[in-house]
């Protein structure tokens, strides 16, 4: 993507004012985004993102410059702009660049650009028809298709030189159901770190049907009661609760400055013994998987909480300096426009022993949430909130009527302590996670779990 | 260089069979600096941009964009735009616009912002942090303490002779403060956006950031039930922003907005007037032309509660045999032309915030809402959101309340607005609101 002598010139220019580390990130990304609504493909966008990000460290200072100017002068100018902010005495020498290679954990059969767009349109239309024909109350279906090929080159003054090609495919189906004046929605958005084969090898009809089924089911849902209840959260995207409640608090971004509620607690019991929490970037072809992170470190499986004990954090190169701990292959960014920082990949609660039936049967009264919407956390306080897309009342160990309009709120570390059952049906769900270094693909995951008490903010009064 | 690229692109487009063509070019310069404990922590400097190509071939509009602006990108843009038209089913033809009769001038660029030396900006943000940390021992640090300037220029030109340019810039300061007392931790988000750096006062920013965070300490429980709600201006604006897409004709036509067929009807309390002002000098979405090149103008969407107009681009207007309102919008050169507001806000009254507060016998003041991207159903209008705020009694703020949720329906809320105040604000957003007093919402306390 750039020749080696230019890379060396850039890394050297970036160190010219006394920085102790320099890095270049080159990105060339091809994307397709198509939208189908009312049975017609109404928007088709294809494009190429291209740019360069240059980073310089000096001690605990980090400088970042980026540019879409790809000329030699343009890139060197960006490196000098970055260096300009550094004021040091010792000029260090660049280590000789050694090209690294690796075996991919995300094999791709069909690159998006090699697949005719009419085939992409056809799978969108199928998903649309399946959802639309599910029930007469389905009034609108929107299908979004996305594919991308992101080529990156990462090199740094420590001699690292590595390249990767990341191919991702995703489809998002939103269905709207209408009855009288009431409108409800359902959503499903599967994705993978894989080529077009993802759509052909997955059961897209199932995903489309689920989106429609949720919307139709919600037409008959009652307003969710408010208060504190036992909550059963099903697998796959249900894992968003721990993504918010503890994943973000374990990122070095929050831990390094002691802002996180989990800072300085390694080795402490932070959860019941039945909870093991893992971030694993190496799961084959999963949406949040990476071969290497955006600092060129190989992806790995990081056990964060093991049998309730806090074992580790997610650490990027810069925060590893402040923390005095090694990087964990967790430096990620949306694009060349963002300096990387510590982020999650595929994060999940490891499966336990209970069957889903046991968990429900053992719950006298509570809320069962089948699908979650998104959520948010304040890493400094640990306060989180997230929305429930499809929920049911649990009464005397049985599932009852559907409920709508529920938001769960609470404090991450406290909720973690209240997990009292962990199921055996681990599943993962794809999502986009937004934080300091932009919006990145991650998986959240878990088996079915039960939390003995969560505050539920419903639309029905007490 | 960009002119040469455009000439070549248009030439080759016409040889490839495109009849009408348009190029949109955006260029941005960014500077940002964050400090932590008196030192520079993060520093960012950037120049970037890209082009978006649109063209009509076989009667259909194709799109493609590139951030790499070189000769090799021309076939990439044209091939992709052409292929994309082959899978489009849309019968509603988009048009390349020949131009409006008159374009009102706007003043959105302040040269002084770009002239401030970088060290002066860095010193300012260091001052803010120093003042803040010295104010109270309970202030343990900042999650973010930064200053940033952005300049953006846009150019739209097409083969019908249109060539439009405008530019804007702004400077902003953001301080996220963390305070701790015993086991309780609270945070606040304080910001200032300006075109005049010398109007900013470090001590004033520090004081506001500190007060906002400290005032939330020693929070208590209150019974969960329905309360009259005073939504502070910034919280009200974030709620309005979440539902603003419902005012787009694109959404009503797609059947995903409940404002469909509501023109001329009372959709909000008589106190509510909602306008869109593309010429607001300090506005973050000010523009003299929209994403199709149509001249922008002021628009009243809701007048005394009655829905007067939706936001239209050329395509949605044609469907309803009306005129575009100049609200074609794309987030950047990477996006297709959709419909979107410029500076969109609820008009303030002349009543001060304090008067609204004094009128509440018992209620809750909401100062922050979160989970807006997930806890609000933009289609049905239902929301259940995490909230921070204070218990109100006898017209006075009593104490902060533990984390809450407030739940209701946006359309119902609009109808239940009892009073609005004079304190219009735009919380780092082009969508603004004054504080509003709502009859009641359901509150659940953790």
From TrEMBL, chain A:
Q: Which residues does the UniProt record annotate as the domain Metalloprotease TldD/E central?
A: 112-219
Question: Known EC number(s)?
Answer: 3.4.-.-
Q: Which GO terms describe its molecular function?
A: metallopeptidase activity
- The protein in question is named Metalloprotease TldD
Family per similarity comment: Belongs to the peptidase U62 family.
Which Gene3D superfamilies does the UniProt entry name for this protein? PmbA/TldD superfamily
Keywords associated with the record = Hydrolase, Metalloprotease, Protease
Q: Which residues form the signal peptide?
A: none
First-level EC class? hydrolase
UniProtKB/TrEMBL annotation, chain B:
Indicate the segments forming the Metalloprotease TldD/E N-terminal domain, all copies: 21-84
Domain named Metalloprotease TldD/E central is located at 113-217
**Which protein is depicted?**
Metalloprotease PmbA
Q: Which GO terms describe its molecular function?
A: metallopeptidase activity
Hydrolase in keyword set: yes
Among Pfam families, the record links this protein to: PmbA_TldD_1st, PmbA_TldD_2nd, PmbA_TldD_3rd
Q: What is its EC number?
A: 3.4.-.-
Organism, by scientific name, is: Neobacillus rhizosphaerae
Going by the UniProt record, its keywords in alphabetical order are: Hydrolase, Metalloprotease, Protease
- The EC class name is hydrolase
Q: Which gene encodes it?
A: pmbA
Family, similarity comment: Belongs to the peptidase U62 family.
- Metalloprotease TldD/E C-terminal domain location, by residue? 224-444
